[in-house]
From TrEMBL:
Residues 716-961 form the ABC transporter domain. Keywords: ATP-binding, Cell membrane, Membrane, Nucleotide-binding, Transmembrane, Transmembrane helix, Transport. It comes from Actinoplanes subglobosus. The keyword Membrane applies. CDD domains: TM_PBP1_LivH_like (cd06582), TM_PBP1_LivM_like (cd06581). Its main location: membrane. This is ATP-binding cassette domain-containing protein. The keyword ATP-binding applies.
Length: 973
């Protein structure tokens, strides 16, 4: 039976069912691992192949059915070792790095598998399970391996279900995966359960690889690596990476679909369809709001202008690079050109992944598109310059087109989608006749009537383009645009709350990176006489991520280093399988041990060596040893605090600034300024109580007070707002109004729906129904940044801000609303918007008495201090309505009182209306005009504070469950 040329016959479906079983097992393992570690193990398929290799080796010396469980156990052990040795080690690093490490591990394990047994890559020589019948279904021959698959898979799944549901360890795995903290509290060792989950998944992967391999022809690392993974991922993603049965069932569908598609189209078309299925499935899965997967923070990235030594180093490097053109052979020049091309693509990875924090595995796909378009245009127009420009533009356009749907995805989801894109590009898109087709003859580049036909000359041209790409990357990552990307990488929600248009910024960086990758493709493209799909394999997209990580994701120069090592070395000196294994292991170790890559290692070690060298030379030549410099008085955190305490009224901030500037290092506890005590400046053991009347000079903030006529108008009208998460009704029919100039408190027990309501008001979570009106306009469909620009500004419960950035840089992000960063201006070196923002941030910080903290990374500050900094950022936005989420949590009682004063002053001096979620009832009773009480998602009372506090429903639901609140409210009466 056929439909539109696709074969839907029984045989096809049978074959599809069998392959689907394998994909199903793969998907089950991926889901199991994802649930316990929250990332995709790209080495999952490779671990299975390793198990298959172990069986092939053992089956020669012992019975097959004895080698079978041993091979599965070895694969399980390897997976467990991966979890312990790699995943746990990278626990404190961003999740993207963990996934990249498993990409490297995947390649390493595949090479190891080859070393253990070459048979694991060839179906014809691979051992088949003995003692099982072979038969035919229709015209489909079912060998003993497929029989084993058919018989053993249901048994394996039943055993797995029994293990997970009925045994102590299985229940432990599920509990630790779904609620790690609760599991730990209840005595379930979450880390050990994760290791067990990995081991089980590894065993399953080996089971399927052992039975699948005999049914295949000769396999390549590529078909066993990314392609197989994509098929497993499709089912896992459809199952939302949570349900094992759905993942298995969906994968069987994937197997059947693949066979139907293959009856008319090539394997590349299957990649396209699967990629689209994954994308649609991910887009349909509603993002979970603030409870999205949280990743460990990115390390702080020093952003300094290049030192003289760095400039000299770069010049020397350029001179050496040019000099090489005159000494190397044409063959070596071609390899050097390839290194330049890969470096350019790796620079694009640095922009997207290193700076913007988004894992893109598709950058080499953009390079392929750029190469194909540039060659086509150069042939068509005879103009090389047009060809290069078109190649960059095509790379940028493709990146934006892929980026638009991917805007709603991040982390794991984006990595999976771009992997699918890389496979679809090399398997289908680039094969289209309007791109590479069956191969393109590449003309010699022509430069001002000079035909570049010698490889060494072309290498110089490649070097020129590399210089251009390097310069653009350095300018983009070091300027205001780069800082904005770092901010969004650290905390996208906070960025949007401070008016940063995250989608636009991301599209800009995708476009810039796409253009760079396109340029890399151009360099590689014109270095070939015949350009074909073989120049742009999907695996190169992974290699290029490895290049960027090994060189250092934050280091522009690292891309060249990584490219020379990972791409250049094997081309210059063919390494063989053992050499390749050592090289892959080497880059894996760099990922594990050097967070900043080799580039970071060298750039920190080189100055140290230089200083030592200078000291040795100085000792040699000095006639008399110089007397030791008088020890600078040690300025400790205590001294900073004492300086503040001793400073006369009005002089505390400058005194603190002076002391802080002199302090060599201040620990996290020391760098701590909390809200003020009532009247005098005092030093507390945990922080510094500052006097708000001295330091909180809100009147000097660059914010406009509200026009008197705007008072007493309804500023916010909320009607019928509701939102559910699965079966949980977080907010139900919330209806209330906030009048301009009011301070309104929202109270309610934990889980009452207060934060969800705030998320909806600020635009971070979509409501299921109801309307939010702000200044008379319905804003329900507005983005968070649009609301923030209109003055509807929110704070966050954790006040995390952008931990890897300094206090000044944080406030500069808030100052974006007046002086937005522009990538074009950064590239040409116009830093006027930057200077304007820095000045505005400094004014705001000194107005709020925070000037002395300006250069401290926010991640080092205590929660209380971060709240002050967050408030400074928010006030810089000139808010009309301030939504504060538990601003007093993390503050001492005295600081809480000062916070109350501050809220009153913000309203009095700036005319800002405040809606505040608080558990501190005494504080609210003092400052709020009205209270709104919520319970189980519903507004249960609203009115003057006394009335609401004594409302029977409130007493029952809120005070009745929170002893601390009862005690505190008792203080009031
Ligand atoms: N993204 C989400 N996914 C699933 N459930 C959610 C999500 N956001 C909120 N919830 C659920 O909605 C309910 C209300 O949560 P919410 O955080 O809004 O309450 P809250 O009153 O702010 O509590 P708290 O004082 O602890 O912050 C809770 O049961 C919570 O588990």
């Amino acid at each position: 039976m056929t439909l539109w040329g696709f074969d839907l016959g029984f045989d096809r479906l049978t074959v599809g069912l069998f392959t689907g079983l394998t994909y199903g097992l793969l998907a089950v393992g991926l889901v199991l691992v994802y649930r316990s570690s929250r990332f995709v193990n790209f080495a999952h398929g490779a671990i299975g192949v390793f198990g298959a290799a172990v069986l092939a080796r053992f089956a020669t010396g012992m019975p097959y059915w004895l080698a079978f469980p041993i091979a599965i156990a070895v694969a399980g052990g390897l997976a467990a070792a991966t979890e312990i040795g790699i995943v746990r080690r990278l626990h404190r690093r961003p999740r993207v790095i963990g996934m990249i490490a498993t990409l490297g591990l995947s390649q390493f394990i595949l090479v190891l598998a080859l070393l253990v047994s070459r048979d694991s890559f060839s179906g014809t020589t691979y051992p088949k399970p003995p003692g099982l019948p072979a038969f035919s279904i229709g015209t489909t021959a079912v060998g003993s391996s497929l029989t084993a698959m058919l018989l053993l898979t249901p048994l394996l799944l039943a055993a797995l279900a029994f293990f997970l549901r009925r045994t102590k360890y299985g229940i432990g795995i599920r509990a630790a995966a779904d609620h790690p903290d609760a599991a730990t509290v209840n005595g379930v060792p979450a880390p050990r359960m994760a290791t067990l989950a990995w081991a089980v998944a590894g065993g399953i992967a080996a089971f399927s690889a052992i039975l699948l391999t005999p049914t295949q022809g000769v396999q390549s690392i590529e078909s066993l690596g990314p392609q197989l993974l994509l098929r497993g991922l499709a089912g896992a993603v459809i199952a939302r990476m949570t349900s094992l049965p759905i993942a298995f069932g969906a994968s069987i569908g994937v197997g059947v679909l693949e066979q139907i598609l293959l009856s008319r189209e090539g394997a590349g078309f299957v990649d396209v369809v699967l990629g689209l299925a994954i994308l649609i499935s991910l887009l349909r899965q509603r993002q979970g709001g603030r409870r999205d997967e949280q990743s460990a923070p990115w390390p702080r990235q020093e952003r300094r202008a290049p030192t003289t030594a760095a400039k000299i180093g770069l010049t020397l490097l350029a001179v050496c690079g040019i000099g090489l053109a005159y000494v190397v052979s044409n063959a070596t020049a071609t390899i050097l050109t390839t290194i330049c091309g890969y470096t350019l693509v790796a620079l694009s990875v640095i922009l997207v992944t290193g700076i913007a924090g988004e894992l893109s595995l598709g950058q080499f796909g953009f390079a392929g598109i750029g190469a194909a378009v540039s060659v086509q245009i150069a042939v068509l127009t005879g103009n090389m310059f047009l060809g290069v420009t078109a190649g960059c533009a095509a790379g940028a356009l493709a990146a934006v087109l892929v980026g638009i749907p991917a805007l709603r995805l991040r982390g794991v989801a984006l990595g999976v989608t771009t992997l699918a894109f890389a496979l679809a590009t090399s398997g289908w898109l680039l094969r289209q006749p309007w791109l590479l087709g069956d191969g393109l003859d590449v003309p010699y580049p022509v430069w001002h009537d000079y035909t570049v036909s010698v490889a060494t000359d072309y290498y110089l041209f490649a070097l020129l383009l590399l210089g251009l790409g390097w310069w653009v990357t350095a300018r983009l990552s070091g300027g205001g645009f780069g800082r904005l990307l770092l901010a969004l990488r650290d905390n996208e929600e906070a960025g949007r709350a401070l008016t940063v248009t995250a989608p636009l910024r991301k599209l800009q960086v995708y476009a810039a990176a796409g253009a760079l990758a396109g340029l890399g493709g151009v360099v590689i493209g014109f270095s070939q006489s015949q350009l074909s799909i073989n120049n742009f394999p999907a695996a190169a997209s992974i290699d290029v991520v490895a290049v960027a990580v090994v060189g250092g994701l934050a280091r522009t120069g690292g891309a060249l280093l990584g490219s020379a090592l990972i791409v250049g070395l094997p081309l210059l000196y063919p390494l063989g399988i053992p050499g390749q294994a050592v090289l892959t292991l080497g880059w894996l170790l760099v990922v594990l041990l050097m967070p900043d890559g080799l580039g970071g290692f060298f750039s920190t070690q080189a100055p140290r060596l230089w200083r030592r060298l200078r000291a040795v030379v100085a000792r040699r030549f000095a006639a008399t040893p110089a007397p030791p410099a008088a020890a600078a008085p040690a300025v400790t955190a205590g001294a900073v605090l004492a300086a503040a305490a001793a400073a006369p009224a009005g002089a505390a901030a400058p005194a603190l600034a002076a002391a802080a500037a002199a302090a060599p290092s201040v620990t996290g506890d020391g760098v701590d300024a909390s809200f003020a005590g009532q009247s005098t400046t005092t030093v507390s053991p945990h922080g510094l109580d500052l006097d708000p009347r001295r330091l909180w000079n809100i009147g000097r903030l660059p914010a406009e007070p509200l026009a008197p006529g705007e008072f007493f108008a309804p500023l916010l009208e909320v009607s019928g707002i509701r939102r559910s998460f699965g079966g949980v009704r977080a907010v139900q029919d919330a209806t209330f109004t906030v009048t301009a100039g009011e301070i309104v408190g929202i109270i309610g027990p934990n889980g009452a729906g207060k934060t969800t309501l705030f998320e909806i008001l600020a635009g971070f979570t979509a409501a299921d129904g109801g309307v939010v009106r702000y200044q008379g306009k319905p804003v329900t469909a507005w983005t968070p940044e649009r609301r923030a620009k209109a003055g509807l500004v929110r704070s966050f419960q954790d006040a995390r801000l952008f931990p890897a950035m300094t206090v000044r840089e944080n406030v500069m992000v808030a100052a974006e609303c007046g002086n937005p960063a522009h990538p074009g201006l950064d590239v040409i070196g116009d830093d006027r918007p930057e200077r304007a923002k820095a000045a505005r941030a400094d004014a705001a910080l000194s107005a709020m008495g925070l000037g002395w903290l300006a250069d401290r990374p926010v991640g080092e500050l205590s929660t209380g201090t971060r709240r002050v900094v967050e408030l400074c950022c928010l006030l810089t936005l000139r808010p009309r309505l301030l939504l504060l989420d538990e601003p007093s949590s993390g503050l001492t009682q005295a600081d809480g009182r000062a916070l109350g004063d501050l809220m009153l002053r913000v309203r009095a001096e700036l005319g800002t209306t405040i809606l505040v979620i608080e558990h501190d009832l005494p504080l609210l009773s003092r400052v709020a005009d009205r209270l709104i009480a919520m319970d189980a998602g519903t507004v249960i009372a609203q009115g003057p504070p006394d009335e609401v506090r004594n409302h029977p429903a409130v007493v029952l639901s809120y005070l009745g469950t929170d002893e601390a609140a009862v005690a505190r409210s008792g203080d009031l009466s």
